[in-house]
Design goal:
Elements: E1 2-4, E2 10-13, H1 14-20, E3 25-28, E4 34-37, H2 39-45, H3 49-52, H4 57-60, H5 71-86, E5 90-96, E6 99-103, E7 106-110, E8 113-122, E9 128-137, H6 139-150, H7 155-163, H8 168-195, E10 199-204, E11 209-213, H9 215-220, H10 231-234, H11 243-253, E12 257-266, E13 275-287, E14 293-302, H12 304-341, H13 345-368, E15 374-375, H14 376-384, E16 392-395, E17 400-401, H15 403-422, E18 432-441, E19 445-454, H16 467-479, E20 483-488, E21 493-500
Parallel strand pairs: 16-18
Antiparallel strand pairs: 1-2, 3-4, 3-9, 5-8, 6-7, 8-9, 10-11, 10-14, 12-13, 13-14, 15-17, 18-19, 19-21, 20-21
Helix pairs in contact: 12-13, 13-14, 13-15, 14-15, 15-16
């Protein structure tokens, strides 16, 4: 590249001018790899272009990595990283850095003091493409100052500061130290906000532009890139939900706004549709020293799981109350009907206890599935397990029943098994019970079940309907919306049950 003279003719090469400057310069990539250096820089650092170009600045001058590096190396790296991230110039007033020198005894490191300025070079898009370092060797001034500082009394040091520019070196040192301390404190604060389990965001200006948000906030909004964007642009779905209006109110009035278990609807994963979330949040105004509001500080917690758990708990309590009432009504009905059928207290107690036990068996099955239902075969096995299992044959596909159907059919099968044990196939030496069932689709699912007893001799049809028969008919027809037909044949009872499986039944 050429520099133009007043006449417009190129007469000076920019690279030559850069190299001829008496001020030391080194040019680095954003990764701090040395791309070039002028002769003044090579002279003060006692090196060559071949030794440093293409290498990292820290490798070229033998600096330790990361937290193991000395304090001066960490300061230099922090300054360069600040320039790269902020795209603003940064200064190091005083930084010690040893430089290798060749002697007759070999290479030795000489302690030197430097003042450095780091300037970002930007492309048209505003991106950092190079970093220019300008250094001054101030070793003699710093050593002289240290000598004056240890001299007896403060007068010599003051005189020195006056000579070199009115305390300028000391002030530069103090400013650098303050900046370093503020940078450390800022990094600690940012790290604390990033690690806190609650979500945090800093919004600036009347448009509520994202300046900072932590990992919890980023996770909550579905890992969207919102940095540097106004909230209405970054999260348009929250505008209609009233949250931008709340932010406007805080920015306008300075009064904080809080919400508890507030419904928030937005995508929780990239590309997903909006879903419900509940948050406790607080919007606090951010003020300048003169009280001017410049932004809003957002903090809060995602309490979706707690809210949903409370809703589930309420539903469970309501469901439990409903089931307790239904169970008590069932027990009351069993007690009343059993009492009508048995005038003898002992017989009443035995029948009543057996029916309660059958109800308990079904409840046990439902409890195992959290009252979501029970399997038909499991209910049949529970109600016939007190009898010889080799004499009870079950044949049919797997059928899942809802809780209401399970309770009603449990009582029905108990009555059929009790009747078979007293008067039917299970009371005869060679009697058997075969239970067959199928499921048809006409068009909804329908259960067809046949209870067939065999091996009974001299079976006589009952001359009146007892409580068991009434309970069976009531449960099948009234509670389950099905039909039942009971036929007392010559070799045993045949009961045919038909009931819908897809009907909405009360729990």
């Amino acid at each position: 590249m050429k520099i133009l003279s007043k006449s417009g003719d190129p007469n000076v090469d920019l690279g030559q001018a850069f190299d001829a400057s008496p001020n030391p310069y080194v040019l680095m990539t954003p990764d701090f790899e040395i791309a070039g250096a002028n002769q003044a820089y090579l002279d003060v650092t006692n090196t060559t272009r071949e030794a440093i170009v293409g290498r990292s600045l820290f490798a070229a001058f033998d600096a330790g990595p990361g937290e193991d590096a000395p304090e001066n190396v960490r300061q230099l790296r922090a300054s360069l990283e600040k320039v790269r991230e902020t795209r603003q110039r940064d200064h190091l007033a005083v930084i010690p850095y040893s430089i290798p020198r060749k002697t007759d005894a070999g290479e030795v490191f000489e302690d030197r003091y430097w003042s450095a300025t780091h300037t970002p070079l930007l492309n048209e898009a505003g991106e950092v493409v190079m970093i220019l370092q300008h250094t001054n060797d101030i070793t003699e001034l710093e050593l002289l100052r240290q000598q004056m500082q240890v001299a007896e009394g403060a007068a010599p040091l003051k005189a020195f500061d006056a000579i070199v520019g009115g305390n300028i070196l000391e002030r530069a040192r103090l400013v650098q130290e303050d900046n370093r301390r503020l940078s450390v404190e800022r990094n600690r604060l940012v790290e604390m906000f990033m690690q806190t389990p609650g979500f945090v965001a800093v919004l600036s200006g009347p448009e509520h532009t994202f300046q900072f948000h932590n990992e919890a906030y980023r996770q909550m909004i579905g890992y969207r890139d919102v940095q540097g964007q106004p909230i209405a642009q970054a999260m348009p779905e929250v505008v209609s939900q009233g949250y931008v209006e709340m932010l406007d109110q805080v920015f306008r009035t300075g009064e904080p706004v809080r919400g508890n278990a507030s419904l928030f609807q937005f995508p929780r994963k990239p590309g997903a549709p909006p879903s419900d979330a509940y948050v406790d949040f607080s919007y606090q105004p951010i003020r300048e020293a003169d009280g001017t509001i410049i932004g809003v500080f957002v903090q809060g917690h995602d309490v979706t799981e707690s809210v949903l758990a409370a809703e589930r708990q309420k539903l469970m309590i309501d469901e439990l109350n409903h089931r307790v009432k239904n169970t008590l009504a069932t027990v009351q009905s069993i007690a009343m009907q059993t009492a009508r059928s048995h005038t003898d207290p002992a017989r009443f107690a035995a029948s009543f206890q057996a029916r309660l036990l059958a109800l308990s068996h079904t409840h046990d099955l439902l409890t195992r599935s959290h009252w979501e239902g029970a399997n038909l075969r499991s209910i049949l096995e529970h109600e016939t397990q007190a009898h010889d299992q080799t004499r009870v044959l079950l044949n049919g596909p797997a059928v899942d029943l809802d809780s209401a159907s399970a309770i009603s059919l449990g009582m029905v099968f108990h009555e059929l098994a009790t009747n078979a044990a007293k008067y039917g196939a299970l009371a005869a030496p060679d009697g058997k019970v075969v239970i067959d069932w199928t499921v048809t689709h006409t068009p909804t699912r329908t259960l067809n079940l046949t209870w067939q007893e065999s091996g009974v001799t001299d079976l006589q049809s009952p001359n009146h309907r007892g409580f068991g028969s009434r309970l069976i008919e009531r449960n099948v027809r009234h509670d389950l919306g099905g039909t039942v037909a009971m036929d007392y044949g010559s070799s045993g009872l045949i009961a045919r049950l038909t009931l819908p499986l897809d009907r909405d039944l009360p729990a």
